[in-house]
């Protein structure tokens, strides 16, 4: 019957409709997510050597550094690193605060959707007072107290915890110590470290 034939024809087209729907929703999703550096969806960077994940990291780093101009390198040295569109790299704000857990006071951290928040650990001075190095490695944060031996061991555990064990030649992050003794006066209430007499405070440390 003509009616049944029509149904059969429609049924045979069903897989194509499903495919069309799936690819439409895939395209929608992939468009919703902005391109990231070395994104395989980006034809511009697909052939670049530093984007090839099967190459050793040193080779990729050397290739990337070789492509960057001096101006571009300098603009990457600050926390609001500028984009390098010709190499498919977006701008990147990496400044954030983790005094006792990742907080959202820094411009580089935005909670929401899949990451609604982060654990807020107790004040660090009490964690330091536990003298438990494996605990420090797990939850280390800033300011463990005045004891130089403890502060040194704390810093080593903290950095190890942040960076990971380097498995696969990759660090989780590249940690960098700051706020050394007698240095913590970046710019506070009109005082900065270039314009005060350090001799007056030597007794404090
Ligand atoms: C030290 O901290 C670890 C967690 O990293 C914990 O499992 C262990 O029980 C702690 N040790 C002591 C003596 O409290």
From TrEMBL:
Q: Set out the biological process GO terms recorded for this chain's protein.
A: arabinan catabolic process; xylan catabolic process
What are its GO cellular component terms?
apoplast
Keywords (A to Z) from UniProt:
Hydrolase, Signal
Q: Which GO terms describe its molecular function?
A: alpha-L-arabinofuranosidase activity; xylan 1,4-beta-xylosidase activity
Give the source's domain of life in one word. Answer: Eukaryota
Where does the record locate the signal sequence feature?
1-32
Its protein name is: Uncharacterized protein
């Amino acid at each position: 019957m003509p009616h049944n034939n029509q149904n059969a024809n429609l049924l045979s087209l069903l897989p194509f409709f499903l495919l069309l729907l799936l690819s439409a929703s895939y395209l929608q999703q992939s468009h919703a997510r902005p391109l990231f550096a070395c994104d395989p969806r980006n034809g511009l960077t697909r052939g670049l050597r530093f984007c090839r994940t099967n190459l050793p990291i040193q080779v990729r780093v050397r290739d990337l550094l070789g492509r960057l101009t001096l101006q571009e390198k300098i603009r990457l040295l600050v926390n609001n690193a500028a984009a390098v569109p010709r190499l498919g790299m977006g701008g990147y704000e990496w400044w954030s605060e983790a005094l006792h857990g990742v907080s959202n006071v820094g411009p580089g951290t935005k909670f929401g959707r899949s990451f609604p928040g982060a654990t807020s650990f107790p004040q660090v001075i009490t964690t330091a007072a536990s003298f438990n190095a494996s605990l420090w490695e797990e939850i280390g944060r800033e300011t463990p107290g005045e004891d130089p031996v403890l502060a040194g061991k704390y810093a080593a555990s903290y950095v190890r915890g942040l960076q990971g064990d380097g498995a696969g030649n990759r660090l989780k992050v590249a940690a960098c110590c700051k706020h050394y003794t007698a240095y913590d006066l970046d710019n506070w209430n009109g005082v900065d470290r270039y314009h005060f007499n350090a001799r007056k405070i030597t007794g404090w440390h």
